[in-house]
From TrEMBL, chain B:
Name of the protein described by the UniProt record: Sugar ABC transporter permease
Single GO molecular function: transmembrane transporter activity
Transmembrane spans: 12-38, 58-80, 92-109, 115-134, 146-165, 198-217, 245-266, 272-291, 298-319, 325-346
InterPro entries the record matches: ABC_transp_permease
Protein location: Cell membrane
Organism: Rhodobaculum claviforme
Recorded topology in the membrane: Multi-pass membrane protein
Main location: membrane
UniProtKB/TrEMBL annotation, chain C:
InterPro entries xref list: ABC_transp_permease (IPR001851)
Name the record gives this protein: ABC transporter permease
Entry coiled-coil feature ranges: none
Species whose genome carries this gene: Rhodobaculum claviforme
GTP-binding listed as a keyword: no
Bilayer topology: Multi-pass membrane protein
Alphabetical UniProt keywords: Cell membrane, Membrane, Transmembrane, Transmembrane helix
Domain of life: Bacteria
Pfam families to which the protein is assigned, alphabetical: BPD_transp_2 (PF02653)
Subcellular location: Cell membrane
Amino acid sequence: MPLLAAEGLTRRFGALVANDSVDLTVMPGEIHALLGENGAGKSTLVKMLYGLLQPDAGIIRWKGDAVTLPTPKAARGLGIGMVFQHFSLFDALTVAENVALALDDARPLRAVSDELADISRAYGLPLEPRREVWRLSVGARQRIEIVRCLMQNPDLLILDEPTSVLTPQESEGLFATLRTLRAEGRAVLYISHKLEEVRGLCEAATILRQGRVVDRCDPRQQTAGSLARMMVGAHIAEVRRARAEARIGPVRLRVDHLSVPSEDPQGTALKDVTLEVGTGEILGIAGVAGNGQDELFAALSGEVRAPEAGNIVLEGTPIGWNGINARRRAAAAFVPEERLGHAAAPRLPLSENALMAGHAKGGFTRRGLIDRGRMLGWVDAVTHAFDVRKGPRDPEARALSGGNLQKFVVGREILGKPRLLVVAQPTWGVDAGAASLIRQALIDLAARGASVLVISQDLDELFEIADRMAVIFHGRLSPAYPAEDLTREAVGLLMGGEGFGPGREAA
Amino acid sequence: MRLTLDRRDGAGMAGLFLSPLLAVALTLASSIVVFWLLGQDPWRALNVYFLMPVSDFWGVQEVAVKATPLVLIAVGLALCFRSNNWNIGAEGQFLIGAICGGGIAVWTQGWGGPWVLPLMLVAGMAGGALYALIPAVLKTRLRVNEILVSLMLVYVAELLLDWLVRGPWRDPFGFNMPQTITFAPEATLPLLFDGGRMNLGTVITLVVVVVATVVMARTLKGFEIKLVGEAPRAARFAGFDDKKLTLTVFAVSGALAGLAGVMEAAGTVRQLLPGFSPGYGFTAIIVAFLGRLNPVGCLIAGVFIAITFIGGENAQIILRLPRDMTLVFQGMLLFYILACDTLILYRPRLVPRRAPA
Amino acid sequence: MTLAEAIFLTVITASTPLLLAAIGELVVERSGVLNLGVEGMMIMGAASGVAVAIVTGSSVLGVVAAIGAGMAMAALFALLTLGLATNQVAAGLSLTIFGLGLSGVVGAPFVGMQRAGIAKIEVPFLSELPLIGPILFRQDPFVYGSVALVAGVAWFLWRTKAGLVLRACGENPVSAHALGYPVLRIRFAAVLFGGACAGLAGAYLSLVLTPFWTAGMTAGRGWIALAIVVFASWLPWRAMLGAYLFGGLIILQLHAQTAGVRVPSQLLAALPYLLTIVALTVIMALRRGGGQVAPQALGRPFVPDR
């Protein structure tokens, strides 16, 4: 008998049908993959299974009986636990308090701490109960999430893209834990779009596209390519690039022994970062989230100034003390990681979002007054060049889908013909079509002679587009190696801090 | 049943105008109920509050006299609130403006010339701006809460004024009344019409509204204010310095409140005395919100609130209603405007309570 | 009674309304809501307390009415900020304006009507002790109540699961919601508690401290209570310390005035406000670089995604 069976689950948000009559069957002792692109409806489905959303139609059966799950508490009561993609942790509270919050009984905190210690030993998930969460690494935070699910002794554990924030080695540790759980007869519902991972770990898969189940398979019998086709439903253009030797010229951007404290008291300071990017080159910076990527971006963009002007040199000119607009006037451009709120103001129209990044170089004002016509013209140009799909001519930024907004944000910068582009997480959370278009645009930009620096947590992406790669760990940067000389394992070890020498902090 | 809020996709332009109108309508409806509860004839009361003040030219001038400081302060506050800077102490900046300008009038009594009035206006603006910079500097340097600091400074300004008019600046021939001398003609704003109190201050205010409208709608500075308020991180990405902007908007709003204060002293009251302001600085907060933090909106809202101000005074005499009634209506209006704003952003929906497990 | 005893006694009575209002607001802010309407709730408590006490002749009913009025005002605020997710700063300000106006209307018929204060509780024997006797064991019930309230709140926030959940809502409402906690309902309860405390503080002003009604009699005490919460880094016992410091200041200033210190009385009267600014500045300067102290989600509206 299936452990969990969803039959005909449907959920609408206004006009959008997020889940359209979805069927899903999970057997006991099975690691079941739920595959799909961003926006395919995976999150909506698991939120219904965890009692966070109510289905508009359909039945959920648990061990054969139809159940309603009005709250997560009800789901936990049955034996369903969930680890969220964006952790539902409380930074200012301790590990034990975080775990206690997820328990439905009112055990005293000391008892919680004891049991927590037991479980973390049994499953190889080391944790310190009295530590405050903000002091912990991403991997440790995920361990808290898993431990607090396991304290409920669940029959089914739902994991939402658990490895997107982990190093390959940390991921292996997680897989070992999951296999232990399977051996105990528990089931795991594993949401991912990393196909190799799914092929190695799962014995069943359900594939969602646009809110519908489009296929079911045994991923072990599939290739990554065939899984991708099921997910996307179409052939995605392969990214093409020319050989590196033909393109790469002299150094354009040089970062020289740059150390910057973090503005965020919980952030990571940059320590002695040195790098070079040549003309026509794409340099990739890999690393687990929270290792100084935000600080590196802020320092490169000029949102935070460097201690010495000579720490950052662009085309021979020291620019470390220049602000972001002075750097833009020196033909640099920037795409931050956070689309809504950083790269774009959610409630302002696209034209004003174009003005935001473009006003420094002039052209949008006439006699001190803003020229709305030119702003709209720029929006049209970006829309055309980057295939930005939108309803009205000038909608608010938040009205665009993630992929289309990202195309707009990247296009806005590339159309300004920068000689240096610094971009963080260029395709984070966008659909495969947009991701492929954006990566091609970055490669084409480099082919035209620009220098591109890509900060990304997505190793697949970096291996696809980068000429050389470095790894950032605890605010330090490794030397950059040619991408073809690197393996995923080697990069993974660097991401975990191997080879960074002394001065490592405990995770 | 429980209330849920669904985010609307594009906020309709209609909502922008609908919301304040709806808020006014709801306030009127509520006030009818309140009047009825107090045993008043609601129609007569509404007539006293809203129609009598504008029934003749003298009344219209009085409305302009009251609206002038409200609009001027509210335009400044709108810049602050737009950029997420919560200057709640406009009342204090208003008083300091009056003190700085009025001080010059007292000091130059008997030997002044035509230069006195411009000097007073400049001193009032400078005083208000500097006073507003206290919370702004503390906020940008040490992240001290600007709401509490600017508010505390209101009490300090009130006490300073009280001390001045009872002590050093008291009119020696004023029968020991706590007030300054009546200002000399060269220290007063010229009247626009004979037989009324409307003065040059109203014209200055209208000019400020026009300038502020252009700045907000068409200049990079206006865009900066909007962007800092909407998305502070995006504003930094645009190369705007939010700390510098905080100082700027506080200084500008303080200067406008100070200007309102000195114009009230030099134009309307023509001397300084305790209780010199009927709380213009606080009422202007309501005006700013009712006017959608938009300069022209503030102008319309300021006129409306000024009418209720005078209506309240009339009601006190004619209907024997307590003067605080006006505050009740103003608070109510602000509640409604906030609630109506939510209706623009979200679509409220009553849904049945979820079935028990 | 010696002068020292008298001064200590008055300090405690001057501090108690600050403490009551501050401890209520502390719980509200711990749940992630910033209610700037303390002044408005407090003065409504003062006005309704007096009105009901005079009409019914019962101080107890007056106190109950004051608490009820504070809660009603708080419920109004909660409806706006929690039900309709409006800007908390603006809603708090309108609550204060509304409260100042409405209290004037409610209190108008009772202006100048004095009634006897509430009797003090004398602990046998202990109250006979020199100095500490009258200070610690001959106080009105509110003083004892306020200290018990601080102890209760401290215990609740750090020793109970419910307190942990409340703090969690103030740190990260999205996560608390994801774990299945009814964030808005918890915040609603916290706001109501804050309203009850502010109402009680108001009753203390108009029934014990003064004891009669004058318009605007809170004179910024609600705002000082808000400052005390910041000053106390959102910790209950430290709020008590802060309240007594500010209360002491107010009394010191009054005594200096009667003692004929050669400074303008207005300057002395301005001292509590000026020192509030100084205290806030000093505490922020000390805290610089010390990480986050305020509840992380303080003042940010939360709308659950159904």
